[in-house]
Write a structure and sequence with these properties.
The protein is mainly alpha-helical. Among the domains are: about 40 residues, no CATH class; about 30 residues. It is about 50% helix and about 0% strand. It contains four helices and no strands. It is elongated, with a radius of gyration of 37 Å.
Length: about 120
């Protein structure tokens, strides 16, 4: 297996060299790596996690075992809130306007049909 050998013991010189590389990558001068550059270099070379230990522990806990504000409480479903452009039946504003237009069109058709019937019913002179 090629390239399988590790880097061995991480020395302070190795951390210093990587911190200088990171400083250049992050836009600093290589002669002045920041503490963050040193910390990142150490994490990279030693294989430490990016998260702090407390955060890492909380991330490893399954969701089913997470914080429970009231142990034994089953909870309840919150009521669905309507959007600001929805009516009580949950129709959007555009659906409401469409339905209103259909109603008006039906009403106009009925009025026109009624007028046509009246004209046909009138006796011719």
């Amino acid at each position: 297996m090629e390239n399988a050998a590790g880097i061995g013991t991480v020395t302070s010189e190795m951390i210093e060299a990587r911190a200088r590389e990171l400083a250049v990558i992050n836009g600093h001068t290589s002669s002045q790596p920041s503490d963050a550059d040193y910390q990142q270099a150490k994490r990279e070379l030693t294989g430490e996690s990016e998260m702090d230990p407390q955060e890492e522990r909380s991330e490893s806990i399954p969701d089913s075992e997470g914080w429970d504000p009231l142990p034994g409480s089953t909870g309840r479903q919150a009521a669905d809130s309507l959007g600001e452009d929805e009516d009580a039946e949950g129709r959007s504003e555009s659906a409401q306007m469409f339905e209103e237009g259909v109603s008006e069109a039906e009403h106009d058709q009925m009025r026109q049909a009624s007028r046509a019937d009246e004209e046909n019913d009138e006796p011719e002179p």
